[in-house]
C-alpha cells in the first residue's frame, strides 16, 4: 500500500433486522431475489428496533403478485389503536418477470419460495427471498458432517502451524 493511502471500508450498507438461519439447513438455495416490502408505519418502527422473526415465513404467489406470509413482526409497544397485527400478509414488490419466473419454478415438485433475511437498505425495508428445494433428512446429515469435517481440518491446520 502506498504511503498516505487510506484503506477503504468494505462495510455492508444493509442494516440486518432478521436472518432465517434454519432456511439454509432445511433447503438448498437455488436462486436469490431482493424484494421491497409494503409495511405500515408501526411495522417499520418495530423493525427499526430490530424485532422480527422469519422462521415460519414463506412467499405465496397469487395472480401475478407475491405475498409474504407467516412472518412475525411484533406490535410496536408505543403504538396506539392503529397498531398492526403481527402475522398479517405483506405484499412484496418485485418486477413482473421475476414474479413469473418464481411462479413457474415454484410449481415444480419440491420447490418453494422462502425469506432468507430482512434488512434496511438506504432507509427502505427489503427482504431477501430465495427459490429453494427442500432437503431430505440424509442430505441434512451429510451437510452437517461436511461442516464438521471442515472445522476439524481447519483446527488441525491451526494446531500444526502453532507447532511449526
SSE inventory with pairings:
Layout: E1 15-19, H1 21-26, E2 27-37, H2 41-48, E3 58-62, E4 65-69, E5 90-93, H3 96-106, E6 111-121, E7 124-134, H4 137-163
Antiparallel strand pairs: 1-6, 2-5, 2-7, 3-4, 4-5, 6-7
Can you give keywords for this protein?
164 residues; 7-stranded antiparallel β-sheet; single chain
Structural notes for this entry:
With 164 residues, the chain is of the alpha+beta class. It has four helices and seven strands. The protein has helices at residues 21-26, 41-48, 96-106, 137-163, and strands at residues 15-19, 27-37, 58-62, 65-69, 90-93, 111-121, 124-134. Strands 1-6-7-2-5-4-3 form a seven-stranded antiparallel sheet. The model has no long low-confidence stretch (mean pLDDT 85). Its main location: cytoplasm. Keywords: Cytoplasm, RNA-binding. Pfam families: SmpB. It is found in: Cytoplasm. Belongs to the SmpB family.
User: What is the tally of beta strands?
Assistant: 7
Runs in which pLDDT lies below 50 for 5 or more consecutive residues are none
* Sheet with the most strands, sense and barrel status: 7 strands, antiparallel
- Could you say which overall geometry the principal axes of the C-alpha atoms support? globular
The percent range for helix content is: 25-40%
Pfam family, one: SmpB
Keywords: Cytoplasm, RNA-binding
Protein name: SsrA-binding protein
InterPro entries: SmpB, SsrA-bd_prot, SsrA-bd_prot_CS
Amino acid at each position: 500500500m502506498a504511503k498516505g493511502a487510506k484503506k477503504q471500508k468494505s462495510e455492508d450498507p444493509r442494516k440486518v433486522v432478521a436472518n432465517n438461519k434454519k432456511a439454509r439447513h432445511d433447503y438448498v438455495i437455488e436462486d436469490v431475489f431482493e424484494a421491497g416490502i409494503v409495511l405500515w408505519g408501526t411495522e417499520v418502527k418495530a423493525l427499526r428496533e430490530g424485532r422480527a422473526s422469519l422462521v415460519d415465513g414463506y412467499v405465496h404467489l397469487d395472480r401475478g403478485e407475491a405475498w409474504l406470509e407467516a412472518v412475525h413482526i411484533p406490535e410496536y409497544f408505543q403504538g396506539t389503536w392503529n397498531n398492526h397485527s403481527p402475522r398479517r400478509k405483506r405484499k412484496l414488490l418485485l418486477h413482473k418477470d421475476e414474479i413469473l419466473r418464481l411462479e413457474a419454478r415454484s410449481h415444480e415438485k419440491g420447490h418453494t419460495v422462502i425469506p432468507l433475511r430482512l434488512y434496511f437498505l438506504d432507509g427502505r425495508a427489503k427482504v431477501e427471498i430465495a427459490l429453494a428445494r427442500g432437503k431430505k433428512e440424509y442430505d441434512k446429515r451429510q451437510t452437517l458432517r461436511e461442516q464438521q469435517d471442515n472445522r476439524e481440518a481447519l483446527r488441525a491446520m491451526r494446531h500444526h502451524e502453532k507447532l511449526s
